[in-house]
UniProtKB/TrEMBL annotation:
Organism: Actinoplanes philippinensis
Catalytic reaction list: Endohydrolysis of (1->4)-beta-D-glucosidic linkages in cellulose, lichenin and cereal beta-D-glucans
Superkingdom assignment: Bacteria
Record has Hydrolase as a keyword: yes
Family indicated by similarity: Belongs to the glycosyl hydrolase 9 (cellulase E) family.
Protein name: Endoglucanase
Length: 546
């Protein structure tokens, strides 16, 4: 394995171009950029960076940003080591954007995955009985039709809070990034007059609507009554399915994304937009009447708990989306009266399923409205971006993420990406090129410029993750089954090491090294809808730039 870590996909001609060299040397070293024909086309001296806390390595930076001519098969050589090959040129990220979004069709529940649309991934419809699912004894005495939606991750559960943040991010990309309204995703609905991305998102939105109980509250999740083993294809799942109790967090997730969806879908389907907005209003009112219905942390049989006992951020987020869609004073008041509206919401990571205040802030900053103090909202986003940019520039691997105590979170790759989203929004607000370059350089980490010199995206780069935790992309366990499709993001380093494989193989790991590409390492190597959503968002930005 080379000691020169590069973005194995490549570098945009007009963007930054840096690599990281692992070496014992403390003085600058000579580097050379070699083209596909073996000719030296650039050379220079490395910049020593000392010991990188996130990996424990002594590292140097190689900056070859002066090379703008396009080509393939480039390599970097320094200190006797040679990098993996890479490309320099325009248009590098459009294929990754497309594949990152095509991932969601393969996560669909309740529908046949057509072989002609996804060669090698066709399978029968799974969980058709989700059209008539009973509540658990502690969740109610009725049954609901909760068919459809996306399987959340490597299991076959469907979770409203993970679905909510993933839908929000995809809709946010559609609303604020260019080039997504005509992106072809090869879906069963393609050609129906609605952009393919919205067709895909609607599959999940319809499921979220079905999770709304007669009271207006929303069930937190639904899944098998007991965990199934690996591999288990969805249509062969023997476990009965069950609805878990309603929660305030899930209810506010529906309120937020249904309101957001209402304004975006109105151009294409006014009746559907009306239905979404009515559901959002009902959910917001129901959550206000039931503000502390929390998902229990011990609810771990057959599905993850996704527990969250602080829903101030979800109230803020839902109010923001309802206000941006309706312009109504009551929702503006809820936004302005929230203690989070003037708080610093940009911590070590900007947002995820359990921390949604920054999602509200980003939409309030970008979406036109008459909200008082909108300049302050925009300034807060820029301040958050400045913080992440400073972290990235100080990091020898250009990672816009520095968790306290170097304790990397579960799903750290998504947190890196969500911090890059903030940088991209700051670029939208200011036009400053430093934010743009930060996003592009931040992507390098995920695509090979990291301590493991591994691309965390299946099918992209020379060395990439391909054994993500999944019950149906389980080639590692059953060679007749496929690896995850191209464009699937692995969760990434996680200092918690919650699974037995990680505990056995990674004990004592430092930061970036707390990862293993093994299907049984669900705490470092799972795939999820809300990790591929930020991958799609950020690559949509990079595709615009490129």
């Amino acid at each position: 394995m080379s000691a020169v870590a590069v973005n194995q996909v490549g570098y945009l001609s007009s963007g930054p171009k840096r690599a990281t060299l692992v070496t014992d040397a403390v003085e600058p070293l000579t580097w050379q950029l070699v083209d596909g024909a073996g000719e030296i086309v650039a050379e220079g001296r490395t910049r020593p960076r000392g010991t990188d806390v996130s990996s424990g390595q002594n590292v140097h930076t190689i900056d070859f940003g002066g090379r703008r001519q396009a080509g393939a098969g480039f390599t970097l050589t320094a200190d006797g080591a040679t990098s993996r090959p890479f490309t320099i040129g325009p248009g590098l990220y459009r294929p990754l954007l497309t594949d990152a979004l095509k991932f969601f069709y393969c996560q669909r529940s309740g529908i046949e995955i057509r072989e002609d649309l996804r060669p090698g991934y066709g399978r029968p419809a799974g969980h058709l009985t989700d059209s008539d699912v009973p509540c658990a004894p502690d969740a109610g005495d009725y049954r609901l039709d909760v068919r459809g939606g996306w399987y959340d991750a490597g299991d076959q559960g469907k979770y409203v809070v993970n679905g909510g943040i993933a839908v929000w991010q995809l809709l946010h990309a559609f609303e604020h990034r260019r080039g997504l309204d005509d992106l072809a995703l090869d879906l069963p609905e393609s050609g129906n007059g609605v952009p393919d991305l919205l067709n895909e998102v609607r599959w999940e939105l319809d499921f979220l609507l079905r999770m709304q109980a007669p009271t207006g509250m929303v069930h937190h999740k639904m899944h098998d009554s007991a965990w199934t083993g690996l591999p288990t294809l969805p249509h062969l799942d023997p476990q009965p399915r069950v609805l878990r109790p309603v929660s305030t967090a899930a209810t506010l997730n529906l309120a937020a994304v249904a309101a957001q969806g209402a304004r975006i879908f109105r151009k294409y389907d006014a009746d559907y937009a009306d239905r979404l907005l009515a559901a959002a209003r009902t959910a917001f009112t129901a959550a206000g009447d039931n503000p502390i219905r929390y998902a229990p942390v011990e609810d771990t049989i057959g599905g993850g708990p996704y527990d969250d006992d602080d829903v101030r951020d979800e109230f803020y987020w839902a109010a923001a989306e309802l206000y941006l869609t309706t312009g109504e004073q009551r929702y503006a008041d809820a936004v302005l009266e929230s203690p989070l509206h003037t708080a610093d919401v940009f911590g070590p990571y900007a947002f995820d399923w359990a921390a949604t205040a920054a999602a509200a802030r980003l939409d309030l900053a970008l979406t036109p409205s008459a909200l008082p103090g909108r300049d302050d909202v925009r300034a807060s986003v820029i301040a958050g971006a400045d913080r992440y940019l400073a972290v990235l520039r100080a990091h020898p691997y250009a990672v816009a993420y520095a968790p306290p105590g170097n304790q990397w979170h579960w799903g750290s790759n998504s947190m890196v990406l969500n911090n890059l989203v903030v940088l991209a929004v700051a670029h939208d607000l200011t036009g400053e090129p430093g934010y743009r370059d930060g996003v592009l350089e931040g992507l390098d980490y995920l695509l090979g410029r990291n301590a493991l010199r591994l691309s965390y995206v299946t099918g992209y780069g020379t060395d990439y993750a391909e054994n993500q935790h999944s019950r149906w992309y389980a080639h590692q366990l059953d060679p007749s089954l496929p690896h995850p499709p191209r464009g699937t993001l692995a969760g990434g380093p996680n200092s918690g090491l919650q699974d037995e494989v990680a505990q056995a193989r990674l004990a004592g790991c430092v930061g970036q090294f707390c990862y293993v590409d093994d299907i049984e390492s669900w705490s470092t190597n799972e795939l999820t809808i809300n990790w591929n959503a930020p991958l799609a968002w950020v690559t949509a930005f990079a595709a615009e730039i490129g």
